[in-house]
Amino acid sequence: xxxxxxxxxxxxxxxxxxxxxxxxxxxxxxxxxxxxxxxxxxxxxxxxxxxxxxxxxxxxxxxxxxxxxxxxxxxxxxxxxxxxxxxxxxxxxxxxxxxxxxxxxxxxxxxxxxxxxxxxxxxxxxxxxxxxxxxxxxxxxxxxxxxxxxxxxxxxxxxxxxxxxxxxxxxxxxxxxxxxxxxxxxxxxxxxxxxxxxxxxxxxxxxxxxxxxxxxxxxxxxxxxxxxxxxxxxxxxxxxxxxxxxxxxxxxxxxxxxxxxxxxxxxxxxxxxxxxxxxxxxxxxxxxxxxxxxxxxxxxxxxxxxxxxxxxxxxxxxxxxxxxxxxxxxxxxxxxxxxxxxxxxxxxxxxxxxxxxxxxxxxxxxxxxxxxxxxxxxxxxxxxxxxxxxxxxxxxxxxxxxxxxxxxxxxxxxxxxxxxxxxxxxxxxxxxxxxxxxxxxxxxxxxxxxxxxxxxxxxxxxxxxxxxxxxxxxxxxxxxxxxxxxxxxxxxxxxxxxxxxxxxxxxxxxxxxxxxxxxxxxxxxxxxxxxxxxxxxxxxxxxxxxxxxxxxxxxxxxxxxxxxxxxxxxxxxxxxxxxxxxxxxxxxxxxxxxxxxxxxxxxxxxxxxxxxxx
Length: 614
Fold this sequence. Notes:
This protein is of the alpha+beta class. The chain is built from 12 helices and 28 strands. β24 and β25 form a beta hairpin. The radius of gyration is 26 Å and the shape is globular.
């Protein structure tokens, strides 16, 4: 087989985005890089399924060595970009050239089946009428708007996390799809590096740092390898087999930033279950179901049904109530002005069942006592879990589900409040209007339900002194529970030692509002500082960042036309205009003001260190 040809993108006369600028915007995912990639990839797979098609997913981790690795070097990456000085600050980030020289190279493959694949034309500069532009939007363009009605995605930037997960910023895409109504198989390699200069056609030119591997298109670029050649290459590389009856896409991430230890199996399994269980339940309609297979170095990992993986059994029962609109088990969340039904909520309680052994690992989201509401849009992918008040008696727990209305105006209101990672609803980012009101009212009502489900009397403002003890009330409620978790009561999982209580601590920052100053948007964040005065020289640092793809990008990494900066930090009557404040013996409300660009989200990160500050 003839090796693929490399094409390196030149800067156009009118300019392009340089590779390093693109990479800096990736930042560090708030969810964890692996979790972000799986969320984004599976969400895109679900959106790519034609109406009525169930989706099959394969997550596979394997290591290439010997002859298998040599095929990767010789057939895909024989022609490599010029060697560049490593400008990355990440110690475990390597160039593609040095990665391919290693004796072993790991691959993380994310494959979907029964989806459309990367359909449409392969060039971004031609029109395609009504045909989908999945191929160019994924492999050529940077960002695209949501094109699936009530779909999970809204920004189209999730693909960038795939490059971030690779130590070599490199992926291989293999897709069985259609173009112009005709079936076609395509394979292409993609790499994201820094901008550079090189001699081409006798002239020194500038290149963006974006590279593709394919077949010469006779116009100075490359198209993907297609047809029988593509199928043959995919087979030689060991990618999941496909034919015209197994449409879809495989993304192979080269040398992923993950530790292949025992926890990887559990992390893959629980990331899928925690985020996609609504589409994996036994009662999920066949046309909306996803079936997930996980393989680790040739070993298949069992993927339990959510109903058999506590505490997801409680959330699954709540989801069924919402879907069936069960009388007496579902609460309609409404807005009074404007009048609208915003969505439906159900909460189910049960005994705390013994956890699956994988859920006992440190950091498992399913290890602790459940007491949250899973927030979703009608696409039924978990946006996030809204925590509430847990039962005081740890033998019992509860889980709830809220799905916003599928009316276009209301679903759109919730969709546009999601950041690029689709992991929250942030109505403060919207201008004043109906959409902002819908989401604000829904979140207010949901917080109320989450806070008062265990102690209903709190809704009427009753003090502790006027009612029975919280512990006794919780225990009584527990004894009256009518539902038990799918695996029986069992022995509750120990959350580990409680440890000593911190004497100096700061809460997670919360968004407090949006202001305008000299035409610039300014976000306000607040947090509570607890301080016993034992370390008077301790400095509290507040570092602003842009949120892109569910990631943190520091102000220093951003292009000149995107400004994020800290205006001030205040504590009590002290206000400083630097990123660090010596806290002394003061405690109370910390307030920060951060400048932010238009059409973007910002955040703040607090850290402590010893040193001098204003």
